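Please check this today:
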Amino acid sequence: MNKIIFGCFFLFGIIALAQNTQEMSNTIYQFKVDDIEGKEFDLATLKGKKVMLVNTASKCGLTPQYEQLEEIYKEYKNDNFMVIGFPANNFASQESGSDEDIAQFCERNYGVTFPMMSKISVKGYDMHPLYQFLTQKSKNGLEDSEVQWNFQKYLINEEGKLVKVIDPRTLPNDDSILQWIKS
């Protein structure tokens, strides 16, 4: 009898683990990335928050968007909203500096306090697995997309699922984004 009970608990445990793994496989919670200081950042710590992921660059015509990103982060961070920047050098070598250079630039020029991650690739053969997830419907369950340029935004709901891709030229404080944050 004990073997049957143990077997049932074991089976239920395996089923629960498989369901949890499947649930995380189409969310950002499956990823761990390095922050700009080289420390591991587990995206699963963002459960229950709305998140804007954005690929950034220091020498781009859209770089002033850092200011709006910081503004909305400060205004809504206590309302379960997070901005996370991912520096990338995929477009016209507009982010060629080291992580240390990028961190100093962001702090000095825009007072950035939202989390910045280590520089990654958001396009091409060496695309980071997080961005593979964000750009492939087979992985994110929403849509296929391509990172068009620096400052493309990906909106993630409280369950870690991709809900919208925002054009790089759309400002972070655009009314449609603010309405989504507040909803």
Notes: The chain has one domain: 2-182. The domain at 2-182 is CATH 3.40.30.10 (Glutaredoxin).
